[in-house]
Design brief:
With 389 residues, the chain is α/β, with parallel strands linked by helices. The chain contains 15 helices and 15 strands. It folds into 3 domains: 101 residues, Beta Barrel (Elongation Factor Tu (Ef-tu), domain 3); 102 residues, Up-down Bundle (NADPH-cytochrome p450 Reductase, Chain A, domain 3), CATH 1.20.990.10; 144 residues, Nucleotide-binding domain of ferredoxin-NADP reductase (FNR) module (Rossmann fold). 36% of the residues lie in helices and 21% in strands. 35% of the residues are buried. The chain binds flavin-adenine dinucleotide and NADP nicotinamide-adenine-dinucleotide phosphate (NAP).
Amino acid sequence: MTTPAVHTPPAFNRKNLCIAGINLSRKLSGEGSPKDTRHFEIDLRGSGMTFEPGDSLAVLPTNCPELVSEVLAVLGHTGDEAVTDLDGRTVRLREALTSSCAITIPDKKLLNALCDKSPGVEADALRALLDPAQKEALNAHLYGREVIDFLLQFPSAKFEPQEFVSLNKKVQIRLYSISSSLRANPDSVHLTVATVRYTSHGRARKGVASTFLSERVTLDATDIPTFINPGKGFRLPAPEETTPIIMCGPGTGIAPFRAFLQERKATGAKGKSWLFFGEISAKTDFFYEEEWSAHLVDGTLTRLDTAFSRDQTEKIYVQHRIEQAAAEFWEWLEEGAIFYVCGDASRMATDVDKALHKVIETAGGKSPEEATAYVEQMKTDKRYRRDVY
Ligand SMILES: Cc1cc2nc3c(=O)[nH]c(=O)nc-3n(C[C@H](O)[C@H](O)[C@H](O)COP(=O)(O)OP(=O)(O)OC[C@H]3O[C@@H](n4cnc5c(N)ncnc54)[C@H](O)[C@@H]3O)c2cc1C
Ligand SMILES: NC(=O)c1ccc[n+]([C@@H]2O[C@H](COP(=O)([O-])OP(=O)(O)OC[C@H]3O[C@@H](n4cnc5c(N)ncnc54)[C@H](OP(=O)(O)O)[C@@H]3O)[C@@H](O)[C@H]2O)c1
């Protein structure tokens, strides 16, 4: 008798990327919305790649071809020159600038080289910022500036093709919270991505990975290098547990909770669930509205509270909804609920944290110090879990 072959799923990681294709790209932001948030479905068939709700997908993007051409033009090269890229491969310069070099984020090596090659008052000012003691001032100066801005600022600085490649950082992966469950969608991984576009210093800019997905990836082409980044701390209770869950996911922060609810429906999870969602307007940005309605009807979702910030004169955010529902929120906490928060780290997560303390103080009758201790205990018990960016 022969021993059956053991199937080991391939271990995809930064060094062994899974090259996937996309089979659906759909705009979630409606007509008239200032945002461009999209739903993507990436084909997993035949890849062997698996994941759990709470994991993220790492995407290795390529740079915008127009930006690459602009950098080449400023450098005075055609792009056909042979170079060794930052992974040691022999490629044309255009390919190195497209796939290997992080041409939007200037490395200090490049800034120093520009100062050396183009001495003068401007180089002196930049060199002063490169002093380690000036880290904050340098960061402020770099905010909203890319490699192209510095090349244009120092036009007399000339670089050989290989020299230029070596002065850049490597293109970095970007993480996206997975917004689907394999139990509900066994052949694909879904993402919910806000396309980053803004203008700074008079130039229109594009976020590398979000515009790679929304503008440059073509349907049915197999050209997205990916791997799964496990979200170890962002896990659901077992389906048979009655632990309630409270999910707070404004904007793209909704992504893991769509995966959670798909998973809970598929596994018939027992506990109650409460979702807080916020976006700018109910009319244009109520992402996945029909899915939440269906989950409310079939009992997968117990309660949904929404905060549409720009539908009235004063801003209404998820934390305001949490505070308005303080009594019930406190009851759920006392029943042992796990509180999950996903989305913007800089403002939302801080304000939601303050709202959590406020609920514990007002509805729970605790002093500020006791509320802090309660939150600390929640963290220790892994009942306050955040995935913020
Ligand atoms: C665990 C995790 C999960 C995530 N999940 C999601 C998700 O589900 N969906 C999602 O959309 N994103 C998610 N992100 C964020 C995502 O990884 C990327 O950071 C985001 O898409 C931007 O990447 P980008 O390559 O498009 O932009 P980049 O090329 O990285 O550009 C973004 C940078 O541009 C600069 N910038 C942006 N706006 C301005 C401005 N107005 N003025 C000046 N400079 C500006 C900032 O320096 C900013 O860091 C997640 C991040 C993490 C860490
Ligand atoms: N670098 C930047 O300048 C910048 C700006 C925006 C987003 N981002 C990042 O882009 C990513 C995606 O953003 P996103 O599209 O998911 O959504 P988002 O910008 O987080 O917005 C989602 C909702 O949250 C609201 N919001 C704004 N401030 C808030 C606060 N303090 N507390 C609670 N809610 C708040 C927004 O309202 P209003 O917009 O009406 O105030 C909107 O209704 C996130 O990583 C975010 O950090 C960066």
